[in-house]
Design goal:
single chain, alpha/beta, Rossmann fold, two-stranded antiparallel ribbon, 38% helix
């Protein structure tokens, strides 16, 4: 697979950030979601994003970078492996824990929450209530826009489109060699 060495190099480059020409390693906090309140209240503006982030690509990076600009603390709700199996109809390339480790290396991600299998919108609503974000960041055309808008209204947050869809960037397309350039 041609993309594998490129992706490995890409992950290595993401594992550190530069600040004032000094290499600084940052690792985001990784937590397992257990339906208890999540401590984010000490931050002025919490941004919540959700997704699988399996086979991280340019579209993911742009999304996360622009989501961080929408606030000062970026929380990623990371879907479990079972969601990839069910909704993407394929085995995940990386386990949830591996995906969390990859995301934790990105300098603009502050916290990753490992989600269990959530059943229905009520459990996702409870998650949003526990995190209590100021902003829920999405990509243009997000199929869950209406649900996220309802969740945001319940906690006094806004839903912000932070990026347009970037062409053919898709983990499944990359895995299956269908990405067009």
């Amino acid at each position: 697979m041609k993309t594998f060495p490129v992706l490995c190099a890409f992950y290595l480059l993401l594992s550190a950030c530069t600040t004032n020409s000094t290499l600084v390693e940052q690792t985001a906090l990784i937590e397992t979601y257990d339906f208890n309140a999540i401590q984010t209240t000490k931050y002025k503006s919490v941004v919540l994003v959700g997704g699988c982030f399996d086979v991280l690509h340019f579209g993911h990076i742009e999304f996360l970078k622009k989501a961080k600009v929408a606030g000062d603390y970026l929380v990623v709700a990371l879907e479990p492996d079972q969601r990839i199996l069910k909704y993407k109809h394929r085995k995940p390339t990386h386990t949830q824990k591996e995906r969390a480790e990859i995301l934790s290396s990105i300098c603009f991600v502050d916290k990753i929450i490992l989600l269990p299998v959530l059943n229905g919108f009520e459990e996702y609503n409870r998650l949003v209530e526990h995190i209590h974000p100021n902003v829920i960041a999405i990509t243009e055309g997000d199929p869950q826009f209406k649900n996220k808008q309802n969740q945001a209204e319940k906690v006094g947050a806004t839903v912000e489109v932070v990026v347009q869809r970037l062409g053919d960037f898709s983990s499944s397309a990359i895995i299956n060699g269908r990405q067009k350039r």
